[in-house]
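Lecture notes, continued. The same structure-token format from the folding unit now serves as the input rather than the output. Read the line below as a description of shape only.
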């Protein structure tokens, strides 16, 4: 499958895509359930940071969850969490959680749309809320929830050459999932390149795969 053209990843093109979405279907909608608790509505922010002098080097801001978290500990995720009764909308949930988890001020976020709900194996019904983030933000990660924060080029994530499909049998059921391993460039104190692998997988990779499908189907001329 083709990569999403670079021109379609620019902020104006993304705004136009959500303003007039195509007819499409998400590729992955739910995981095999391994939880007995009641479904819980949740929302995550898909924060697209407008990097580069002409905003053509946009990135996606991601977190690595703290190792002591009750669910999805240590995994790479979007900022987000459960819907609170006081939240006016899924957008409100995503913005509140992003501020609580990483200190991202909603003032820097322009929400441009939502992707279809994704159901995790832990019974979270997650709404991905897509937002454009101005690069002037300053973060203050909550150490109780977040171990690390990093960015991955949007162009890398929207290229299916970097998407891997996995399948295995677990508790009598066949489970399939995507991963998008990313080698984050890191320089050592002595000037050597020592990349760090960011293994994006599971629900986060699935929602990114759906975002890819949303952008690549019937691309605008």
């Amino acid at each position: 499958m083709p990569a999403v053209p670079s021109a379609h990843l620019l902020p104006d093109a993304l705004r136009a895509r959500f303003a007039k979405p195509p007819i499409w279907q998400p590729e992955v909608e739910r995981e095999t359930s391994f939880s007995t608790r009641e479904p819980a509505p949740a929302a995550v922010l898909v924060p697209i940071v407008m990097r580069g002098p002409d905003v053509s080097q946009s990135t996606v801001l991601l977190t690595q969850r703290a190792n002591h978290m009750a669910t999805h500990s240590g995994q790479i995720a979007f900022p987000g969490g459960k819907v609170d009764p006081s939240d006016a909308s899924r957008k409100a949930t995503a913005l509140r959680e992003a501020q609580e988890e990483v200190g991202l001020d909603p003032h820097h976020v322009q929400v441009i749309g939502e992707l279809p709900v994704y159901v995790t194996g832990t019974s979270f019904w997650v709404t991905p809320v897509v937002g454009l983030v101005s690069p002037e933000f300053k973060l203050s990660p909550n150490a109780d929830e977040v171990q690390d924060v990093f960015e991955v080029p949007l162009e890398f994530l929207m290229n299916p050459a970097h998407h891997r499909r996995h399948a295995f049998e677990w508790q009598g059921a066949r489970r399939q999932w995507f991963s998008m391993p990313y080698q984050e460039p890191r320089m050592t104190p002595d000037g050597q390149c020592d990349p760090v692998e960011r293994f994006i997988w599971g629900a986060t990779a699935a929602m990114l795969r759906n975002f890819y499908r949303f952008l690549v189907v019937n691309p605008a001329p």
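Point for the exam: The radius of gyration is 17 Å.
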